[in-house]
Amino acid sequence: MSGGVNPSSAHDVGRVPVELGRRSYEILVGGGLIARAGSLIAPQLKDRRVLIVTDATVGRLYLEELVHSLEAAGIRQESIVLPPGEATKDFRHLEELCSRMLQARIERGSMILALGGGVIGDLAGFAASIVLRGIEFIQIPTTLLAQVDSSVGGKTGINTGQGKNLVGSFYQPRLVLADIDALDSLPRRELLAGYAEVVKYGLINDPAFFTWLETHGADLIDGDHAARRHAVMTSCAAKAAVVAADEREADQRALLNLGHTFGHALEAECGYTGELLHGEGVAIGMVMAFELSAMLGLAPSEDAARVARHLGSVGLPTSPAAIGRGFDAARLVHHMRQDKKVKDGHLTFVLARGIGHAFLSRDVELPQVEALLARALAA
Ligand SMILES: NC(=O)c1ccc[n+]([C@@H]2O[C@H](COP(=O)([O-])OP(=O)(O)OC[C@H]3O[C@@H](n4cnc5c(N)ncnc54)[C@H](O)[C@@H]3O)[C@@H](O)[C@H]2O)c1
Ligand SMILES: [Zn+2]
Question: Nearest bound ligand to CA 89?
Answer without folding.
Answer: 1
